[in-house]
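The material for today's practical consists of a large collection of protein records. An example says more than a description, so a record of this kind follows:
***
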Amino acid sequence: MTLPHLILILAICLAWGFNFVVAKFGVVEVSPMMLTGSRFALLSLALIPFLKIVPGQMWRIFVVAMTMGGIHFALMFAALDISDTVSVVAIGVQLNVPFATLLSVFILHEAVGWRRWLGMGIAFSGVVLISFDPAVFNSLGGMALVITAAFMAAVGMVTMRQLAGVGVFTLQAWIAIFSWPPMFLLTALIEPHEFAATLNASWLAWSAILYTAVGASLFGHAAMFYLLQRYEVSLISPITLLAPVIGVFFGVTLWGDELSWRMVVGGIMTLAGVLAIALRKPPDPASAQEA
């Protein structure tokens, strides 16, 4: 991975890590479905100029939109809503890494060598260590939602890798367009009062909606699509393990989550594993089978 691309994926992790605590502030006033719908409605307005039909790719675009868009974020925001801590969600959503790696092997037939498995193993072991914090076991309902959200993201990530001839912002535009109507429809059917509550929400809640649209999606997911067009899923997805470490940090400093020794040691392990993955040199043609 080149240095500019490494810096880019670190910026993505920072944006996504901060998004956990921002969304937690948002769901205090706005329901998860309404927050998801509002996020993608704003994103749709910004990306209308990029909306265009891509022949032969629309069914894959729809799968990506549903899995990485509305379903993933509605579940993740619901988990944040019922969990006491931001850290639980920040950790649990990273289960998309083993999901995505396994799917990439079986569906995309990507070769994952021992160096990448080792780096991912160290990084994921750090996440597992953090997950043994008692706060996780106090939020089992939230963790169940997070696990489902993580699997949806993994399906979307692998499907995204199969796209061809789709611009970064065109994909983001379709994700937004496909995501907000079902969220608003479900809100109207299940919790219609949320429309008025959202309109009357504080500036903090609206700032959260704006950040999730611009910071996490317009920048974060567009940049991730850019990288997935150039690198294998099994290389990119493990590096995103940095996001929960950053999310835990913001959870402790901004939300008041308790910092335990497991979070410290697990965070160091995750950083070490991510560094091992990121510094892996591209294999020579002759040694491609060993990389």
About this structure: The chain has one domain: 3-281.
